[in-house]
Amino acid sequence: MAASVVVALLVAFLTPVVVAYLFTRRPKKPLPANLPPGSLGLPVIGHSLGLLRAMRRNTGEQWLRDRIHCYGPVSKLSLFGAPTVFVTGPAANKLVFTSEALAPKQPRCLPLILGRRNILELAGEDYRRVRGAMMQFLKPDSLRRYVGTVDAEVTRHLDALWAGRRTVTVLPLMKLLTFDIVATLLFGLERGAVRERLAAAFADMLEGMWSVPLDLPFTAFRRSLRASARARRVLEATLAEKKARLERGESSPGDDLVTCLASLRAEDGGGWQKQLLTDEEIVDNAMVVLVAGHDTSSVLMTFMVRHLAGDPATLATMVREHDEIAKSKADGEALTWEDLHNMRFTWRVALETLRMIPPIFGSFRRALEDMELDGYCIPKGWQVFWASSVTHMEPGIFRDPEKFDPSRFEGQTPPPYSFVAFGGGQRLCAGIEFARVETLVTMHHLVRRFRWRLCCKKNTFVRDPMPSPLNGLPIELERRDMASTTPTKSSE
């Protein structure tokens, strides 16, 4: 029954697209002779189904490596109805993250759900203006004041939902924690009805974030659009309240990200001061922050927990690092920015986790003009697709890439544009320091309070589109002061 419904939806979706393709296609200018090797496949469908199947089976990286074996690091294919050039390697990554001739191109559903003025959709001066505004709050000098706030959220979360439990499921709990941190620190929302409405709308919105953009009754995309509208109403009301508080002098720009963005001013042509970002831009980018701060950090911390369950040596080194930090603090005293600076080994573990299992599989750009890479032409209007994990697992860059080795990030850093879990160049993630604070504070309290073992015999994960461990990673918990001195190994 379920299969027949899926087939019916695919037919309903693809039939009008194919008909439109056949009856509206126009003669195009001849393609250049030096196109990359490869095939565009069938019209409209191209290679999309093959890549999606591979991602759901967690063989997406192998699917791309097979292409590289056949065609090299630059090849042409067709994805999601558009001619595409797949690129990999440091030089390609540099092009993707620095070239003004490449514009962002997200799946069609994302701007419809998150808003068209979000930072993922912007390029050029608009991108620099919005990113610069967000960095006013997300830069290290600002975030150092809020480590104690994050510490309090993590402590409250572990006391309420981990302590005293024999088993917990890690991924949904990590998502709940990161939502609470974003709601408190970035949106300034107190616990109560408003925050609960945002949480409910956000949960419904996520279900259709990566769905086929069919705005029809009973589709996941329609439900996600409606949930997005509810979340936006909450954020619009929050923004209006924060602007009013600023005007009355009852708040300051450093209170939270939304207040900070609302407070920023720029001169217009006549010398008047105006709001640097429009209300639409503030809300759209609050939506992006909500998704990015919730999903990527929760996935990272979940996979760190997953790895540490079977790596007692790495866990023991982390425990020593965090015990040493705790020695200098009074009972119950919150962590500080200086404490985070001393968690060097833990951050290397996080970076190695990101190298091996990056939350973002890859993304697209669109060529604004004819471009050249490795002697091949990328025609104007074509998509450019890159995938971080392929470069991350390149033996010529990372020795024994299948081995988990945090020392790769000690001392000498990887070559430029080789490790791109946070992007690079002008497209470096604006929230990298925020993610670092979330991750280090959470792991400090986890490894000092608990030991755990995996409940599932199969230690696998799938991508849909972000990596998700089997059953959300259920684990058996044990208080550290009751555990043996030797970390427990995961079940075989």
SSE diagram, text form:
Layout: H1 2-24, H2 48-56, H3 60-71, E1 74-79, E2 82-87, H4 90-98, E3 102-105, H5 109-114, H6 124-138, H7 140-143, H8 147-161, E4 167-169, H9 170-186, H10 193-207, H11 220-247, H12 257-263, E5 265-267, E6 273-275, H13 279-308, H14 312-327, H15 337-341, H16 344-356, E7 363-367, E8 371-373, E9 376-378, E10 383-386, H17 388-392, H18 432-449, E11 450-454, E12 461-463, E13 467-469, E14 474-479
Parallel strand pairs: 2-10
Antiparallel strand pairs: 1-2, 3-7, 4-14, 5-6, 7-10, 8-9, 11-14, 12-13
How would you describe this protein?
The strands form five sheets. The chain has a five-stranded mixed sheet with strand order 1-2-10-7-3. It has a three-stranded antiparallel sheet with strand order 4-14-11. Mean pLDDT is 87; it is low at 1-13, 19-24 and 482-492. The protein is globular. It has helices at 2-24, 48-56, 60-71, 90-98, 109-114, 124-138, 140-143, 147-161, 170-186, 193-207, 220-247, 257-263, 279-308, 312-327, 337-341, 344-356, 388-392, 432-449, and strands at 74-79, 82-87, 102-105, 167-169, 265-267, 273-275, 363-367, 371-373, 376-378, 383-386, 450-454, 461-463, 467-469, 474-479. A hairpin with a 5-residue loop joins β5 (265-267) and β6. It has 18 helices and 14 strands. It is α+β, with helices and mostly antiparallel strands. The protein has a single domain (13-482), classed as Cytochrome P450 (Cytochrome p450, Orthogonal Bundle).
